[in-house]
Amino acid sequence: MDATPYLLVQLSDTHITHPGRLISGRVDTAAALRHAVQRVLKIQPRPVAVLISGDLVDAGHPAEYAQLRELLQPLIDARLPLALAPGNHDARAPLQAAFADAPGVHCGEHGAAALQYALDLPGPLRLVVLDSLQDGRPDGGFDDAKLAQADALLAARADVPTLVALHHPPHATGLAVMDTMSLRQGLSSFEALIARHPQVQRVVCGHLHRLTLGQVAHVAALSAPSTAHQLALDLRTDAPLAITQEPAGWLIHAWGPGLPLVSHLAQAGEHEVIPDL
């Protein structure tokens, strides 16, 4: 039996801005995403899909999404399915408009109030993408309508192992400022939602610009690093929000025959591989 694993790549917090503009005057998010895309195209075995877990652009502007589309075009041309989730820096309508004619790009039903959907991946594994964006707010939330839709998506294939993706972390992290901007509205209802669906094996998010490991109900919850800039690791209760030039990265979720769902950290940059002779 072929034991080759299936791979889902998770990029996050790409924060693409207007062409030529740098974040904080220093961070070239476009160059960082270009590098990440090149690395994704070299991954073996070939990924079955690429998830981007929010803050796709920096200010929700159509020109930013146009540049994002250009940067992601090599993945589209390679026929790698893309699953896009909105973050608090995103705007739903221009996001959907930028990818309306892009084959294999998933970002919810056109014009929907919430960009929530499911993808059936081989293996099998089901990817359920949820929309934690609250317009005009940095923190995330789920109202009753979004929770009901999420419950229906999960109930539709309750027999299939499932990975749930959203932008905002659904638990505290000790990063004081970011914890004020985590999933706030409907947090207990989200926890109850996950608890009702034992087929959920992982919850993944972005927003933190760091790798963190927490728990929601019975499930491990992982945040992905940013493809560009990371947030400084400072666990003082009065710590200011600051970025750091720590290595960028992404997650690779692997599963398959004889392999449970396992998540790996990959770091940006070119790293020599030295055979153990």
From TrEMBL:
<dbReference type="InterPro" id="IPR042283">
    <property type="entry name" value="GpdQ_catalytic"/>
</dbReference>
<dbReference type="InterPro" id="IPR004843">
    <property type="entry name" value="Calcineurin-like_PHP"/>
</dbReference>
<dbReference type="InterPro" id="IPR050884">
    <property type="entry name" value="CNP_phosphodiesterase-III"/>
</dbReference>
<dbReference type="InterPro" id="IPR042281">
    <property type="entry name" value="GpdQ_beta-strand"/>
</dbReference>
<feature type="domain" description="Calcineurin-like phosphoesterase">
    <location>
        <begin position="9"/>
        <end position="210"/>
    </location>
</feature>
<dbReference type="InterPro" id="IPR029052">
    <property type="entry name" value="Metallo-depent_PP-like"/>
</dbReference>
<dbReference type="Pfam" id="PF00149">
    <property type="entry name" value="Metallophos"/>
</dbReference>
<protein>
    <submittedName>
        <fullName>Metallophosphoesterase</fullName>
    </submittedName>
</protein>
<keyword id="KW-0479">Metal-binding</keyword>
<comment type="similarity">
    <text>Belongs to the cyclic nucleotide phosphodiesterase class-III family.</text>
</comment>
<keyword id="KW-0378">Hydrolase</keyword>
<keyword id="KW-0408">Iron</keyword>
